[in-house]
Amino acid sequence: MARELGWIRQFQAPRTDSLPPLIVFPHAGAGASAYRVFAKRMAQDFDTVIVQYPGRQDRLREPAAETLPELARGAFEAFRGSARDTGAPITVFGHSMGSIVAFEFARLAEAAGLSVRLLVVSAAAAPQRIAELPGHPTEDEELLDHMAALNGTGADVMASREVMRMALPVLKADYRAFDAYSCGADVRVAAPVLVLGGDDDPFVGPRDLYGWDQATTGEVEVNLFAGGHFYVDENIDGIAEVLAGQALTR
Questions:
Q1: Among the options 96, 99, 115, 122, which is catalytic?
Q2: CATH architecture of structural domain 8-249
Q3: Could you state, in order of their start, the residue ranges of all structural domains in the chain?
Q4: pLDDT single digits (tens) 65-87
């Protein structure tokens, strides 16, 4: 069971008290529990917390956020008020839509004087390109087809179309926020960016991944793993090794 309510979840205690913080931002339509296995593995090297967006799971009665910066702001305020904000440099990870929320979170952190050791973005185009992308489907059946093509929200959960249908309200809200997002061409973070993706992702290709050099004044490294848009589920150990190798040596 999650150890806190509100924005911050921790499903696995860190291996030691001295591990650096890792903040994880889920993809559209997902709750924090979708990253339970991921967090358990990351807890070997990081004090790992997962952000729980409003409008889902134990925050179902709360209205979903209308913008991605709103999600980042809520998460940042919660993190700054938590015991995990020790002033140590942080690593921030986001998958798909969560990558953009993670980017906005990193901007807030840097503006507040909190050091971002590494921004890790996964299966997402750079913030400056989001406004150019076609909007997501809004009709139920088209959206269900889109979700099936993504092979998410977690392949096992989305095996049934009726199960997918239950996720539509929060997914629609997340996609509205995503499709409304825009980012100025000159907006950058200073943190180095580690870009991850699946080599068979039908929606986010190498051009999208390499475009993250627009979003930082720091270094950018791109790593591809076998798989599609939700390649993370099959590559957790490999991702953990890359994250630890990048974040813990800076």
A1: 96
A2: 3-Layer(aba) Sandwich (3.40)
A3: 8-249
A4: 999 999 999 999 999 988 889 89
